[in-house]
Automatic annotation (TrEMBL):
It comes from Coprococcus eutactus. It is an enzyme of class 2 (transferase). The keyword Transferase applies. This is Tagatose-6-phosphate kinase. GO terms for biological process: carbohydrate catabolic process; lactose metabolic process; small molecule metabolic process. It catalyses: beta-D-fructose 1-phosphate + ATP = beta-D-fructose 1,6-bisphosphate + ADP + H(+); D-tagatofuranose 6-phosphate + ATP = D-tagatofuranose 1,6-bisphosphate + ADP + H(+). Residues 18-289 form the Carbohydrate kinase PfkB domain.
Amino acid sequence: MIYTVTFNPALDYVVKMDSLELGMVNRSKSETIFYGGKGINVSTVLKNIGVDSVALGFVAGFTGKEIEDGVKTMGVKTDFIQLKNGLSRINVKIKAEQETEINGQGPDIKKDELQQMFDKLDKLQSGDCLILAGTIPASLPSDIYEQIMEKLMNRNIDIVVDATKNLLLNVLKFHPFLIKPNNHELGEMFGVVLKSDDEIVEYAKKLQVMGARNVLISMAGDGAILITETGEVHKIGVPKGTVVNSVGAGDSMVAGFTASYLKDHDYMEALKRGTATGSATAFSEGLATADKVEELYKQL
Ligand SMILES: Nc1ncnc2c1ncn2[C@@H]1O[C@H](COP(=O)(O)OP(=O)(O)OP(=O)(O)O)[C@@H](O)[C@H]1O
Ligand SMILES: O=P(O)(O)OC[C@@]1(O)O[C@H](CO)[C@@H](O)[C@@H]1O
C-alpha cells in the first residue's frame, strides 16, 4: 500500500484576476477551492489514475472537516488525526499576470497528537511505500521527517520525500527511495543558481552522495532530469499544452512516477508517466485525470 503524509493540509483557494495591485482592493474574476497539501494532492492524483493509497495527516476545525469530507468524497482513503485546537489552513493562490501564493502556517500539533501519527506509521508493512510531502507546522520539531525515517529504517519501506532545504537535506542519510526538488530548490540547497542541465546533474549527484537513491529534478515547462541509483541520467521534455494552473504539478509528478515505478520497475517509463501526470495537472483547472495523463503520455 502507498501511504501519504500531509502534516499541514490546506484548502487551496484559487482566485483569478487580470492583475494584482499591491495595497489596493483587488476583485477576482473567479474563485475555486481545492483540497490540498502536497501529500493529499499525491493521494488524489493516485486515485484519479486508479491507484489506491491512504492519506494520513492532521486536520483541525471546520476547514479540516471540509478537507477530510471533500477528500473522502473524491474516493481517497483517509486516516487523518483530528487536532483538538486550531484550524487547518487556507492557502491563497492568486492567478494574475504571475502566480502568487500565500501559504498559511497551520495549526499547532501537540505531543500526544504527534504520537498518534507515529503509532499509525508503526503499522506499515514490508513492501509499503511512504510519501512524505510538504512543509511541517512550526509547532513540530524540525527533524520530524528524520525521526519518521529513522523509525522505519530497515523495514523494507520505500520512502519518497518531497520537501525543501534542510527538511530534505537532513533525511538523505536515511536513503530515501526518491526525492523530487525542482531546479530552483536544488540550487537553493547549495546556495547557487543553476544555469545548465550539466550543473543540475552535477548538484543532483551531490544529493546522491549524501544518501538519496533516486533524484528527480523537475523543471516546470523545461521538463525533468532523473538520476537513478544505478547511475543512469535521463532527461525528458514536456508535452504540448496550455498552462492553466500549475499548483500541484510537482505532487502529480511524484504520484505518476511512484505509481509507475512500483508497478513496472522501469525508470524511463516512470519518468514519462511522472511527466505526463505533472503536465496533465499544469494543463488543467484541478489535478491530473487519467484521460488527460493518457493523452499527454502519447506525446512523450
Ligand atoms: N509550464 C509547464 N508546462 C508543461 N508541464 C509542466 C509545466 N509546469 C509543470 N509541468 C509539469 O509538472 C512537472 C513538475 O513541475 P514543477 O517543476 O513546476 O514542480 P514543482 O515546482 O514541485 O511544482 P508545484 O510546487 O507547483 O507543485 C514538470 O516536470 C512538468 O512535467
Ligand atoms: O506549504 P507547503 O506544505 O510547502 O505547500 C502547500 C501547498 O502549496 O502545496 C500544494 C501544491 O504542491 C498545495 O496544495 C498547497 O497549498
